[in-house]
Write a structure and sequence with these properties.
The complex is a heterodimer. Chain A is mainly beta. Chain A contains no helices and 11 strands. In chain A, strand 7 and strand 8 form a beta hairpin. Chain B is mainly beta. Chain B is built from no helices and 11 strands. In chain B, a hairpin with a 3-residue loop joins strand 7 and strand 8. The relative contact order of chain B is 0.34. The chains are: A mainly beta, B mainly beta. Chains A and B meet through strand 4, strand 5, strand 9 and strand 10 of A and strand 4, strand 5, strand 9 and strand 10 of B.
């Protein structure tokens, strides 16, 4: 158990809908990262937040957005869902970018199925 | 652009048969190279971080090494419970990518009893 929690574990929805994925980082971690894992693309970085502020963006679609709240939990919002958005979505957290050791610990993931 | 290539894509071993997994990378400046283990449907589990060429780290039957262009994950006398996908990732130093990890496609390891 990495200490990172994600809800829900599974999500089944229809095309065009909107969903919210939730992540709670390990106690003491300030950075939260979101990744998407699909069979053809592997693990892809989406976005990073540090202490409530956006730090870096990867190949995140405009239909996707995220935020980190004052209690440091984070939510990933996916809207106008398409079949191709079906994937595993992982959240990871780390302590502090300023330190030399910045290991990211991953949560168990949310499996999204778009029908 | 940072790139990570892992080989082989899949590796089948007999229990006790030692082998190595390869991770080749290109990155503007390496902050760290990470190895993770992932079981089907689960989140990646952290194994090692390597920072500079020549560094080695060990954990049970696993040993990770790093050169300026690649990393190896050596598996000594593997057991069936070592079966998993092993992922390699790099973190670049500086720029706007901050903590972003760039992952390889992984090596699927199967160890037969």
């Amino acid at each position: 158990d990495s200490g990172v929690t994600q809800t829900p574990k599974h999500l089944i929805t229809a095309t065009g809908q909107r969903v919210t994925l939730r992540c709670s980082p390990r106690s003491g971690d300030l950075s939260v990262y979101w990744y998407q894992q699909s069979l053809d693309q592997g693990l892809q970085f989406l976005i990073q937040y540090y202490n409530g502020e956006e730090r870096a963006k990867g190949n995140i679609l405009e239909r996707f957005s995220a935020q980190q709240f004052p209690d440091l939990h984070s939510e990933l919002n996916l809207s106008s869902l398409e079949l191709g958005d079906s994937a595993l979505y992982f959240c990871a957290s780390s302590v502090d970018l300023a330190r030399s050791t910045d290991t990211q610990y991953f949560g168990p993931g949310t499996r999204l199925t778009v029908l | 652009e940072d790139q990570v290539t892992q080989s082989p894509e899949a590796l089948r071993l007999q229990e006790g048969e030692s082998s190595s997994l390869n991770c080749s990378y290109t990155v503007s400046g390496l902050r760290g190279l990470f190895w993770y283990r992932q079981d089907p449907g689960k989140g990646p589990e952290f194994l090692f971080t390597l920072y500079s060429a020549g560094e080695e780290k060990e954990k049970e039957r696993l040993k990770a090494t790093l050169t300026k262009k690649e990393s190896f994950l050596h598996i000594t006398a593997p057991k069936p419970e070592d079966s998993a996908t092993y992922l390699c990732a790099v973190q670049a130093d500086g720029g706007t990518s901050y903590g972003k990890l760039t992952f390889g496609q992984g090596t699927i390891l199967t160890v037969h009893p």
